[in-house]
Design goal:
By secondary structure, this protein is mainly alpha-helical. Among the domains are: 131 residues, Four Helix Bundle (Hemerythrin (Met), subunit A) (Up-down Bundle); 193 residues. It has 28 helices and two strands. A two-stranded parallel ribbon has the order 1-2. The longest helix has 23 residues. The protein is rod-shaped and about 130 Å long.
Amino acid sequence: MCDKNRQTVDLSEYARKILAEEDRPLFDDAVQAGKVGALRAAYVMIWLACAESLKRRFREAQTRDNAAGTIVSEIEEKECQHKAVDKFLLEKAREYGFLSDSGHKRLNHVYEMRCVYGHPYEEAPSQEEVLHAAALVVEHVLSKPVKLRHGFGSQLLKSLLTNQTYLDNQETAVTAFTKNILQRLDESIHGWLLDNYWKELENLADDSSTEIFFRRGIWFCRAMLMKVGVGVFSHDEWHEMVNKFPKTLMRALCSIADLFKEIGERAQDSLVGSILDESGTRSWVLCYLERLDNDGALSERQKQRFAERVSSLSSSELKSASLTTKTCFQTLIVALRSYNWYEQNPAIELIISNGPTQAADLNEDQQVDLGRNILQAGEGKARSADEFLEKLSQGGTSWPFDVVRGIALETFTNEKNEIRFKDRHLNHVLSALAHLTDKQRDQIVGEIAASVHVGVPKDWVDRTDFNRVIDSLRAYGWTAKLISSLEAKAASLPGEDEELWLSSDEV
C-alpha cells in the first residue's frame, strides 16, 4: 500500500544541467527515486553518478595525458582488489584539477553522508539533503566539461617544441589548433603553460635551426592570449615576464595593440626598450613600434623614444628596417639633403620600394617637400634619383600629384620663390607633366609662373640661363603661361653687353 505521507523530491531541474550524455543514466535513476520518495536511494544514486563521472573524466583525459592514465590504472587495480575507490577518486580529482579545494571538501561531505545513508538501519536523508547533494554534484562535476591540466600541458609543450610535423606551418592552422586546445585546457594552468613555453622559446629565439618552432610558438601564444586575455598575469607579473623573455614577448605582444595596451605601463616601457636595443642588430624589429604607434598604443614618451631611434638610423638601416615612408619621412629628408650619394641612394630606393601608395599617405606639404628633395638629389647626380626621374618621365601619374608638383616647382624656384634653374632633368620633368591631366598640368604651370612672377633670381642666374630653359619649354604648347612669366622676368635682367658695361664701369 502506498505511503501517502512519504516525502518526494523533484531533481529534474538539476538533470537538465548535466553536460555529457554518459553521465545521465545514474542521475536519471536518482530523479526517478526522488519522485517516488525513495530518498535514500536517490542520495546513493546521486553519489554514484558523481563517482562514475569522475572515473570517466580520467579515462577521457588519459588519451592525451599520461598522468591521467596512471590514475586510471590505480583505480582499476583497486577495483580488481575489491577495495573502495571513492575516497581515492576524490583526492586524485582534487590533485589533478578536476575539483577545486572547496569543491573537494563539499563533495567529500556528500560521500561521507552517502556512506551513512547507504545502510538501511540508518536514518534516511531529508528532502533538503537530497536536493543539496544533487546541487553540489551537478555544480562541481556533472555540469563541467573535462579539462586537462599539467600532465597534458607538459606533453603539449614537448610536441610543440620538438615535433616539426605536429602542426602545419601556417598561422591560421596554429591559431585554429590553439582555440581547440583551450576548450579542453583547465583555466588554472594557463599561466603555468605560458611561463614554461616562453622559457623554452626564449632559448630558441636566436637559433635559425629551430626557427619553425619559435615562429609557431609565437603564433600559439598570441592566439592564446587573444582568447584568454592578458589578465592571466598581473601588471607586476607582466613587467617581470617581459624582462625574463624579451625576445619572445616583443614578438607575441607587440604585433597586437589590444594585448600591448593591457599589460601595464612598466611592462610596455620594458618592451619598447628591448625593441630599441635589438634594433641595433635587427632594425626590422622597429616595425613593431611602428604598428603600435599607428594603432595609438604608444604613450607620448614611447613615441618620442621611437622617433629618436628612427632619426638616428642611416639610410641603409632605414631600408633594412622596412618602415613606412610616413614613419621615416623626416629621416629620409635629412638623407636626401645630405649631398652624400651613400645616404641619398638608399633613401630613394626605400621611397621607391615603399611605392606611390605610401607616399600618398603623407600630407600635401610633405609630398611637395619629398618631390623637391628628390629633384635636388637628381640635380646632384644621385644615381637612384636619376633613375626615379627617368621612370617618372614615362608616366607622371604613377606617383601622387603633389610629389610630381614638388619636383616641378623645385626645377624653377625654391620655397622662398628665389629663381634658380635645376634643369639637369628638365626634359624628364616636362615629359612627366605631359602625362598629367590638363587640369593638373595647368595648376602646376600656373603655380610655377606665379612663383617666377614674384620671385627674385639668384645672383648667378642671368639671361642665358633663362633663354636655355625657355627654349626647352617651347616644345610643349601648354607651357605658354610659364614662358611668358620667364620672359618678363628675364627682360628685367641686364643683358650680356650691359653686364660687361657695368663691370668696366665699376673698374
